[in-house]
Amino acid sequence: MRTFDLSPLYRSTVGFDRLFSLLDQASGVDAGVPGYPPYNIERTGENAYRITMAVAGFGDSELSIESRENTLTVKGEKKPEDGKESEVLYRGIAGRSFERRFQLADHVEVKGASLENGLLHVDLVREIPEAMKPRTIAITSGKKTSQQIEAKAA
User: Fold this and answer.
1) Same domain for 122 and 104
2) In a 10 Å sphere around its CB, with 0-12 CB exposed, 13-18 middle and 19+ buried, how is residue 127 labelled?
3) How far is 47 from 124, CA to CA, in rounded Å?
């Protein structure tokens, strides 16, 4: 017994849907084919990242990228080739459809994607809003300076 059914908890909680979906994903539910297609995640700058996926045999029209609610979804659907009848003696290049999901941190946005030499590159940037950036607060001393008020003698 390696999986847990969390569906009874969905009915009695409000606002924890993302937490439960993360638990489902970590436990391997809805994982599909693990490890396909292979990918790398690299840091290209202080707030810049790149996901590189090996999608050999897929054209740009057969790939789709969608970013929704802190989830990046990359789908590949191989279209059947019309008019080409051939007998494959050995299949070493996987041509199966796939769907790979990545959980993005808050304020991470997709800046672009490119396909070159069978590698799909998805560029990500973390843009923190100005109101959430750390700021320095000036410290004043706690001593109050007393001001002497001059009064006229009557």
Assistant:
1) yes
2) exposed
3) 8
Cβ atoms of 60 and 115 closer than 8 Å: yes
Same structural domain, 17 and 73: no
Q: Phi then psi for 40, rounded to 5 degrees?
A: -125, 150
pLDDT tens digits, one per residue of 108-127 = 899 999 999 999 999 999 88
> In this structure, what DSSP letter does residue 81 have?
P
Domain annotation covers residue 136? no
Residues 6+ apart with CB under 8 A from 65: 72, 73, 74, 75, 110, 113, 122
Is 57 found in the same domain as 27? no
Residues 14 and 72 in one domain: no
The DSSP symbol for 18 reads: H
